[in-house]
Amino acid sequence: MRILKCHMLAAAIMSVGFFSTESRAQRPVLPGTGSEIVGVADDFEDPAWNYVRRDPKSTEDIDEEQHGPMGRSTNGRWYEGIKRGHPDVVQRVDTPVGGIEGSEGALLLRSKLTGIPDEPSRVMKQDDFVANVQYRLRRQIDVAEVPSVTTRVFLPPVSEWEKRSGPHFGFRLALETTAMVDKEEGFGIFKRTVRELGNEIYWPGMFIEFESKTRSGKEHDYAYLRIRGNQRGGDFKGPQIGTTGWWTLGMSVTPDGMVHYYASPGSDDLTEDDYIASQFPYGYKAERFRTFFYNICSADDGRTWSTSFIVDDPKVFVVRPVGKLATKGTANH
Fold this sequence. Notes:
Blueprint: H1 10-18, E1 35-37, E2 51-52, H2 60-63, E3 72-73, E4 78-80, E5 89-94, E6 105-110, E7 125-131, H3 133-137, E8 141-142, E9 147-155, E10 166-185, E11 192-202, E12 205-211, H4 213-216, E13 222-228, E14 235-240, E15 245-253, E16 259-265, E17 275-279, E18 288-298, E19 309-318, E20 327-328
Antiparallel strand pairs: 1-19, 1-20, 2-3, 4-7, 5-6, 6-19, 7-18, 8-18, 9-15, 9-19, 10-11, 10-12, 10-18, 12-13, 13-14, 15-16, 16-17
């Protein structure tokens, strides 16, 4: 099996990626620009790296059960997503060939029971693995600081992928803005829902989408990046994935509240040539950056494992740090 030859679809992405926002957008900022924030991401180099599970995992988005306390890494940099729970496998492994120079450790993420444990739904579900950015900093990052995140992701050979069409992996941000939100007032029969200005959290990002020839009946398997999302909240198609192995993904947020998406095969730093699109997802203009996280998706059929993805060296950067924010080095300009 193979994935079709890579084609970046630049013209098509430009036409669907901007919609009416293009003329008002600030210039996109390359993820990795500025200074790295110390102590909020991970390189997985410590041989003693470990994740403490506290099962059963949280399933709040399905049955409103949180099952606390949540799982956490022993270095305090990762925690279980309260909505969907952690992946079934969170394991430090040797860095696959072709990774970042000098890297000896990376992180394997894999799941089988992505819904309610021991109650397979046979409908695609997902687990969350969340970086502990906001709580380690003890504050959110204002978009005026121009935050960005980069990560490396290892895609196994296509023969090892879950034979399922749909999303397999996600790399996403947690952003906040001020918007009209629903709020419940009163009690019992006097309860009502009103709309008022409030804090809205949303989660733009990129998904690795797979079209399995086993399911589609097509001659070849096919994979691409699906971008979340456009102004109306819909996802749109990004670059085709033409090769497995290491990929570098990145997103940045500019002071106008716009999200910018980049991706490239290989483990090298991103460049301007890796630009995909810029958007105001859901029509929102981001005001604050909370954190980033990974999604692991599976069929949730009780027997089939998800595709095994390995991540390495996620980093958070700011161009204009303010307040007590420890940074180091200078990245892309």
